[in-house]
Amino acid sequence: MDPSESTDRETDHPNGAYQAAVDYGIDTVQLDYLLTLPPAERLRRHDAALALVLCARKAGIKYYGFDPGSPETSQ
């Protein structure tokens, strides 16, 4: 999607949340692009991102010897 293209996304949100986000300075181009993908592709991308995060967490545990995200380690 070309960033200069206008969307009707503003009308999808009766409370104006989309426009408020744009006015606040949030770049919605990536969001608009992802919403053009079929649900199956969005799920595939989510699964790939989740696998990456889980591998990074395992690597951190292996390197540090503990899970820094665990509530027990923050005490």
Distance between the termini: 47 Å
Mean pLDDT equals 83
User: What Rg, in angstroms, do the CA atoms define?
Assistant: 19 Å
The percent range for helix content is 55-70%
| Strand and helix order | HHHH
Number of helices: 4
Instruction: Detail the poorly predicted runs.
Output: none
SS content category: mainly alpha
The outline comes out as: elongated
Tell me the strand percentage band.
under 5%
The tally of structural domains comes to 2
Q: What's the multimeric state?
A: single chain
Biggest sheet statistics: none
Q: In total, how many beta strands?
A: 0
Quick summary:
The chain is mainly α and 75 residues long. 59% of the residues lie in helices and 0% in strands.
Question: What features would you describe in this structure?
Answer:
The chain is mainly alpha-helical. The protein folds into 2 domains: 8-36, no CATH class; 38-75, no CATH class. The chain is built from 4 helices and no strands. The chain has helices at 9-12, 17-24, 29-34, 39-64. The longest helix is centred in the C-terminal third of the chain and has 26 residues, at 39-64. It is elongated and about 50 Å long. The relative contact order is 0.08.
Keywords:
single chain, 75 residues, mainly alpha, 2 domains, 4 helices
Strand and helix map with partners:
Blueprint: H1 9-12, H2 17-24, H3 29-34, H4 39-64
